[in-house]
Amino acid sequence: MAILIKEKKYRIEIPAGKKKERIDLFLASQIENATRSKIQKLIEANLVTVNGKTVKSSYLVQPNDVIEASHPITPRPETAEPEEIPLEIIYEDEFLLVVNKPAGMVAHPAYANYTGTLVNALLHHTKSLSGIVGRPGIVHRLDKNTSGLLVVAKDDFIHAKLAEQFSKHSAEREYRAICWGVFKDNKGEISSNIARSKSDRKKFAVSKSEGKAAVTLYEVIEQFEFAAYMKLNLKTGRTHQIRVHLSSINHPVFGDETYGGRKIVYGSQLPKMKNRIQNLLEIMPRQALHAKTLGFIHPHKKEFMRFDSELPEDMKELLKKLK
After folding, report:
1. How many domains are contained in the chain?
2. Which residues are catalytic?
3. Does any domain span residue 62?
4. The pLDDT value given to residue 113
């Protein structure tokens, strides 16, 4: 299916009094669904100008600047198309399947990610998927750069029964993460509302008065010099919950660009330590977060089923280096 690439143009006039800020960070907060890395690619392609001249990603936006940007966009196809993409299937029967999603794969087609998704791969694998518009079979999601287990429904009845378990928080979900810092307590509970960030609509933040209640249980499996290997269990399932909650207690997930996990704080004044941590961040170009265990009652068999997965290679390598 041919998809025409169109172009969306932006013109932003910087008001007087605006604090200086890198242009890639500024535009990522202003252009819908644009990440910092995507903005950097636009800049490298000379699709961003300031006062009529091309700039580098490090350019600091000044008061009264006029920024113009051209953002190529791909119109959303009417339906997702089957694509021959490898799947790691942990379990499958005539009612459902459990897959181990790799980091970098989006769960279902959405803005700027209409191909290469888990749904595209599932449509090639099976003709039996629940009929949820836009995301057939997808009962729950993982962030693009979070790896791990997902259950997929093959019909609408199974989908509804599984979704009910996630809604009532009776499904078991256990994660593994590598986080920044030394934890004062080896076990704990983070309980705080999560709402959309007022400063950046693509992000979420803890809130005292807005959003939805969220509870995350954590336990330190192994503490290192400046990071910790963690086990986490969700009592609720909010968007970016683990990442937001850990960041809110100053222990962001290692490598998480969105919530502070790529900032070198520990040893930043020591060249050797800074170089060592930079090497670790290169091993982990994403957030070090993996949905390791998934449990639920099979809607047809009426049996509780629990599935487990190994850590992905990048997290294994990071742990090895930390040890």
Report:
1. 3
2. 143
3. yes
4. 62
